[in-house]
Structure formats: C-alpha cells, structure tokens
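Example 4.3 (complexes with small molecules)
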Amino acid sequence: MVERKLFGTNGVRGIVNKQLTPEMMLKLSMATGTYFRGTDLTVGCDGRVSGPLFLGTVCAGLASVGCQVWNLGLITTPALQFLTKSCKMKGGVMITASHNPPEYNGMKVMGNHGVELPHEEELRIERIYFKEKWSRAEWNRVKEPLLVSEKFGGYFDSIMHNMGGPPRRNLKVLVDAANGVSALSTPTIVEKLGGKASLVNGEIDGTFPGRLPEPNAYNLRHTSRILPNLHVDFGVAHDGDGDRAVFLDERGSVCWGDHTFALVVRDFLEHGSGSRKVVTPISSSQIIEMMAEQYGGEVIYTAVGSVFVSNVMLKLNAMLGGEDNGGVFYSPHVPARDGGITTAMIYRIISESRSPLSKLVADLPRSYIVKDKIPCPDALKARVAESIRNLPNRGKVLNLDGIKMWLPSHSWILIRPSGTEPIVRISVEAPTKGRALKIANEYKSKLSRIIRDSKRHVVQ
Ligand code: MG
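Answer. The structure with magnesium ion bound is encoded below.
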C-alpha cells in the first residue's frame, strides 16, 4: 500500500509556518483544484488565527487552476459539508485543524456528497502535488471567487426539517463553543427548536482563551463546574470546527459519547423509517449493538475514523452513524459528523422524555471500556499482528482495523498496532470495570510474550 505523506487520518494538519506554510497551502490547493478539474468548489475556514491567511491562499490556488470558488468565509465544517452537497458542488475545502491546539491549522477536502475524500483519492491529490502537475488556467479563464454571505439558512432549515415537528418541551441549554465557529450556529439551532441558549466560550478567538478545543472531560472541567448553577437542562460542548458535540447532563457531568449515541440509536430505531443500519467504528461500545438488537437494527462496523464511517454510510445507503468522540452522522441531512444536528437530536430526546439526561444515561446497560498500550517496535508490528490473529478464541473475530475478538460474558478486546507510534493499543469492554481490567492485563501479558518472542526470532 502506498503511504500518504501529507494527508493524515483526517485531512492535512500541521503547525502554522512550520509544516503548514502559505507556499505549501497554495500548492496543495492548486493540486486539489487540478484533481477537481477546475469545477465549482466551496471554501471556508474555522476561527483559527491563520484562517484568513489560508482562506486567501486557498482561494487563489483553486482559482489559478480554473475553479469557481464559493467563498463561505467563517463557517463550521458540517455547514460547509452540507452546502457542498445541497448546492451540488463538485467538492469543498475546509481550512481547519479541528480539535488540535491553537498553533495548528490544516485542510480537509470533501467530495460532492460533502464527505471527506477516501484515502485513495487523497493520494491522487498528493501525486499531483509532488509532481507539480497542476493545470493552470489561461489568463482569461481565471474566475473571481464568489463571496457567500447567507450561508447557514439552508443548513438550519435542513436540521429543523429532519427533526420533524416542534419538540414537546422548551429547554435551556448551555453551549460551550470552545471559542470556535459553532458560536455562529448552535445557539440558533437551540432557539429554532424553541429553547433558550446561554453561551460559554462564545467569542470566536483562534487563541482559544477559554479552553483547548478538544471537548474532553479535562478541558470541560470549568464548564462542568459552572453548569449546575445555571439551571439548564443540558450542556453541549464542541470542538474548534463544530463537527463534534459532547454533552453534559443537568448536573454538569460529562457524558460518554457512546452513551449519547446509544440514546440517538434507540430514538432512531423506535421512530425512524428507512434503512435500519447503524454505522460506527469497531472501537464503539457494545451498548450500541445492544440497542440495535433490542430495537431491530443492524450495526455495521468500520475502521476507526469519521472518514470511514461517512464513506461506508454512502456505500450502504445507511442513514445513521456515530462515533464515541461525540458526533452523529445523519444522511438525510449530510452523511458527515455534525455537532449541530447532534445537538438537535439530543435536545429532542430530552424534550420528549420525562427524565433528565442523567437518568436517561443511567438507565442504559452498564458497560466499561478500559484502554491500555504496550511498547512494540514498528518493525515487529506485522509479525505481532499475525501472532495475535492466531490466538485461540471461540468467539467472533473481526480483522478490520487491528483485531477485535468477542469474548464470553458480553466482553470484547480490540488490539490495534498504532499507525504513528511504536506501540500496540488495547481496548477492552466488559459489564464491570474489574472484568475489563482483568482481560486487559491478561492480554497485555500475552502480547508482551509475543513481542518478546518476535524480537528473539528477528535477532536469530
Ligand atoms: Mg472537528
């Protein structure tokens, strides 16, 4: 398999003016425009400091190879993805580093469905980039980028349309926008649903003065602390570009993404029509599978990463997808992870229920995931993976992204050699934390033995 050099798991990322220079972004956008054969493309950026710099650079690069650029300016990634699809563009470019720290920026390239290109297509852009084979336009074929000012209207309409009628109760919601572009959209979504939004970290500021943009429990500790005093029904926290949504219950506790996704899966299977396939990465909690089993759905597993979820949804015509890091994919809107529609879905579920979010989550089946890792030299990873595949196991095994083995008593283990570090990652899920830890330790010992034997074999 040919390795990609610029694109990572989710677009191109780098520190501004170190790995990510204007020259590099110019060439990358010329390569991207050449790949799209000079057609109509959307371009937008999130609120990072270098956003305007790269917005100008990318618009220039695309226009120079004959593309008609629709410049959306400051926008969330899912709104750009929605517009790319609904306005029948050939593709789109989002300038963002998503949840990375402030010094980073990057670029995601979408196809005509609004979904990030599959990795093999990114590789084609890289080939054009490294061979510098761009198709520059004749001087009189260079098109002026069109500035789009009204950009969220259709996106809001689509979310409201997909929510059906107005929710039963009006709720109060605390929106933590991470000083990112969700400040432009999520409060409006809450208000359109009949609710009242209060904002924290609501000023768009690429230095991220309120908190780091990744919505994890540590970064959300301040939001967690202030939430109970605001007497809201729930809180929602986004990453920098608004495709992720992590929820806090009415007491300020941060909910696990798989728990809120399980609530969405149940609601979808109970009330939705059409495809009953639920697409989710192989690392997701078995609670999703339990919900699907109980309500007549089917879980389809993918490799880990939102790009895989989106592309499998497109291929299978599936309507619903989700990831444990916070975000639902809903095809009738856009088959991409969208923190905006995820907020609307959780709003509706709480509004229709007599229980608060803490109770809805507490009533889900009990299950625990523990994660661990052990050092493993890169050179041994293939041999170690082969030995893991040969481990005796009587349950189901899936070799999709690492090796996932289903074990007795509602447990599983996922063993994945890291693509970027000299380690092997282990995830275990079981009905109790004690059992999950026991399985993790047992397999850690087995893996250590396999790695030791592999080293000895290589030395001999
Ligand atoms: Mg993101």
